[in-house]
Predict the structure of 1-acyl-sn-glycerol-3-phosphate acyltransferase.
Amino acid sequence: MLYLRLARLVVHLLYGMLVCAVIFPWIGTEGRNGHIRRWSRQLLKMCNVTVEMAPGSSQPLVHAMIVANHVSWLDIFVIDALYPCRFVAKAEIRSWPLAGWLVDKAGTVFIARGNRRDLRHIFKGLVASLQAGERVAFFPEGTTAAQGTLLPFHANLFEAAIDAEVMVQPFALSYVDDAGKLHPSVDFIGDMTFAQSVVAILGGKPVRARLHCLPAMPAAGAHRRELAQAAHDAVAGALGVQNAAAA
């Protein structure tokens, strides 16, 4: 059964790559977002993941910078299944088998650690995208963290929202089992590879991905560290974890 589910997943990834290569160059943002939403929902279904909005969630903004805690490679597809975004992600994701190429062609912007020149170039692109009305998302922890913890938020990219004068909307992500407890198969941390994580999820119990959309915050005139800390506090409160200072 596991091998069959893996085979179906590979076929779905290949189909997504075909769509990105053949169809995406000829359609606009709205059309691409429709494909991304449907494809992400199908991927999650294959992984036995259902997505639900947390009670009390705020209305998600169409035009905003989205910031979320980072648990797993599933995070991108959970958000895209509901509200497709242009993501900013670490450069290592590009090397993931099949999925790395796919998220690249879907518009993900990759950042290499320690490359200040690259960061400045990407920063200008993010400001332009936000000013053009796109929904941009990134994970300010900079890496994945085990559920039940929340790392400090790096403040650098919050400056793009300040310069573009757009709202920042925090999202809180969690993954639970049928009993409502944090799911043990979703954490993607340490030396675990992408392939190992996929096998753990496919071979584990059903997953309920819970997305909590939090109230948006105005970025115009704010300081990036204060904005990062406010977003961190909001996510920490939604997840029920201890606060920490922004980096």
Remarks:
- The helical segments are 2-22, 29-46, 74-82, 99-105, 116-131, 158-164, 194-202, 224-239.
